[in-house]
């Protein structure tokens, strides 16, 4: 799962290069071959191998999505009517750097987050030099080029099975309804015994002990400490422009 997540990107997160559908197809083939060998060595049951084969059959759709992404990026950049050398810089350097920056922000692990961020900074540094051709554009044009590049970097969004479609939504909705933890089971038991009332107005505990008991909610308030006040978040500084020229 981790390798598939690192692989399925339009740009290589480690080396900072565009991954064409042909390149991805080759890397996917190597990964599936490795998984098949591992499944065979582990003597996985037939049901597990069928799930692996089902995932492998999605490769064609994944590659088609990647081809769709690059086609749309090219169409958006064509509308800018840039000279060939500037168009190449936007396609091969600026969009790549902006995408790696977004991929780093989405990662929850420190080491995978630092690698694409460092590669992104390496690609952006030359674009900010006063001698770079992009810096010869007027400010309004340069800002417009950056906005389009930002939109292109945002085009590729990987779907998550947990929130994809109605079946995924239902699975997410019922996720907490099974495999109850000991704490949750004890809480549900307390609610059943001391809070839920039958039409006669009595709880299970009242029927069992044949006497009234204090309200459950008041008992919880008396025993559970109140949570501390939430920390005030400091406002984030405005994100600098990716093409902000460096001081000479």
Helix content: 55-70%
- What distance separates the N and C termini? 46 Å
* Uncertain parts: none
* C-alpha-based Rg, rounded: 28 Å
Question: What structural class do helix, strand and pairing data support?
Answer: mainly alpha
Broad shape: extended
Task: Characterize the structure shown.
The chain has helices at residues 2-7, 21-41, 46-56, 59-78, 84-106, 110-127, 139-153, 165-173, 182-194, 204-209, 216-223. The chain is mostly helical. Helix 5 runs antiparallel to helix 6 and helix 5 crosses helix 7. The two termini are 46 Å apart.
Topology of this protein?
Elements: H1 2-7, H2 21-41, H3 46-56, H4 59-78, H5 84-106, H6 110-127, H7 139-153, H8 165-173, H9 182-194, H10 204-209, H11 216-223
Task: Spell out the key features of this protein.
mainly alpha; 248 residues
Brief digest:
The chain has 248 residues and is mostly helical. Helices cover 60% and strands 0% of the residues.
């Amino acid at each position: 799962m981790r390798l598939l997540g690192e692989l399925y990107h339009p740009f290589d997160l480690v080396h900072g290069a565009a991954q064409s559908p042909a390149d991805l197809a080759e890397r996917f083939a190597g990964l599936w071959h490795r998984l098949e060998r591992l499944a065979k060595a582990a003597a996985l049951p037939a049901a597990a191998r069928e799930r692996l084969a089902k995932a492998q059959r999605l490769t064609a759709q994944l590659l088609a999505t990647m081809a769709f992404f690059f086609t749309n990026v090219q169409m958006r950049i064509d509308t800018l009517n840039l000279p060939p050398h500037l168009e190449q810089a936007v396609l091969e350097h600026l969009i790549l750097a902006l995408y790696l920056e977004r991929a780093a922000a989405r990662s929850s692990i420190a080491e995978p987050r630092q690698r694409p961020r460092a590669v992104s900074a390496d690609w952006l540094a030359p674009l900010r030099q006063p001698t770079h051709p992009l810096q010869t554009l007027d400010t309004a044009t340069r800002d417009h080029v950056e906005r389009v590049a930002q939109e292109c970097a945002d085009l590729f969004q990987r779907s998550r099975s947990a929130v994809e479609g109605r079946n995924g939504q239902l699975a997410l909705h019922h996720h907490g309804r099974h495999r109850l933890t000991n704490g949750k089971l004890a809480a549900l038991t307390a609610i059943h015994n001391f809070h839920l009332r039958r039409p006669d107005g009595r709880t299970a505990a009242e029927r069992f002990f044949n006497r009234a008991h204090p309200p459950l909610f008041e008992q919880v308030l008396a025993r559970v400490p109140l949570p501390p006040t939430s920390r005030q978040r400091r406002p984030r500084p405005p994100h600098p422009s990716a093409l902000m020229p460096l001081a000479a």
